[in-house]
Design goal:
118 residues; Nucleotidyltransferase, domain 5; 21% strand
């Protein structure tokens, strides 16, 4: 049954397996990218709760388009501020089925600049 999955689902499975191998004791920074917006959240998988989240739909970020690199940088910076305020510094980056390029890379770089280590 696994051989009939589409390429994006296979990529997501590979990324998830790699994350579980190195994520011992660390939170997971999960990113989702749609055509119009970008969403990110820091998740504590041990407890099953979201520690911090940010998206391009929030009121302070809603003015510009959510589908560009500038919006991704703003979301990454905001998420890093919220996570550091909650005491989270070390995370594992979960890009999901998305390639590490463009908006995903911009969000990751901004989160690093904001104080998250991954």
């Amino acid at each position: 049954m696994a051989k009939f999955k589409n390429p994006t689902e296979r990529r997501k499975g590979r990324v998830r397996r790699a994350i579980k191998a190195v994520a011992y004791g660390r939170k997971r920074l999960s990113v989702h990218r749609s055509e119009m917006h970008i969403y990110a959240q820091v998740i504590d998988d041990a407890k099953g709760v979201t520690v911090a989240s940010a998206s391009s739909l929030e009121k302070d970020l809603r003015g510009a388009s959510g589908a560009n690199i500038a919006a991704a940088k703003a979301v990454g910076k905001l998420l890093a501020e919220r996570a550091v305020a909650k005491g989270v510094k070390d995370v594992v980056f979960d890009r999901g089925r998305f390639l590490y390029h463009g908006r995903i890379k911009a969000l990751a770089d901004a989160a690093r600049e904001g104080g998250l280590n991954f």
